[in-house]
Design goal:
Elements (H helix, E strand, L loop, with lengths): L8 H12 L9 E8 L7 E3 L1 H14 L4 E9 L3 E11 L13 E13 L2 E9 L1 H7 L6
Parallel strand pairs: 1-6
Antiparallel strand pairs: 1-2, 3-4, 4-5, 5-6
């Protein structure tokens, strides 16, 4: 197992955000058994480092300009809470939805748990209906 990339919460948050933004060399910032709770994931959870990499790559395939910006956060040694904004342009298939060319912007929050200098768990809280509406895929 490689050694952790960072030892303080701010550096961990930066490295983890960069991972979501496509910096896959930061993959070791997450634990092997990381759990990420996200509505777009099968059964609502992504388990494990390799599965998380595939999940993030799928976002970037569907939204090539996908970006997460951390608007604000507070943290301590083992826990951080963050507010974020996600943006992107839908140019590839996403969860069975063919490309629409539409831009998305969604805000949310997350609780990120750290241990041994790595992300152990990430629980995302947001309204997935906003993204569906922006993509033009809402149920009547």
């Amino acid at each position: 197992m490689s050694k952790p990339r960072a030892t303080d919460v701010e550096s961990l948050m930066d490295d983890y955000t960069d991972l979501w933004n496509g910096e896959f060399s930061n993959l070791d910032v997450v634990a092997e058994g990381v759990d990420v709770y996200h509505d777009a994931a099968p059964e609502g959870v992504v388990h494990g480092r390799e599965a998380l990499e595939s999940f993030i790559r799928a976002f970037h395939a569907a939204f090539p300009d996908f970006e997460i910006v951390v608007d604000d956060w507070i943290g301590r040694d083992d826990l951080a809470m963050k507010e974020w904004t996600m943006t992107g342009t839908h140019e590839g298939e996403f969860n069975g939805i063919p490309p629409t060319g539409r831009e998305i912007e969604s805000r949310g929050m997350a609780t990120v748990v750290f241990a041994d200098g790595r992300v152990q768990e990430d629980r995302l809280f947001y309204n997935p209906q906003i993204m569906a509406e922006q993509l033009g895929h809402t149920e009547a």
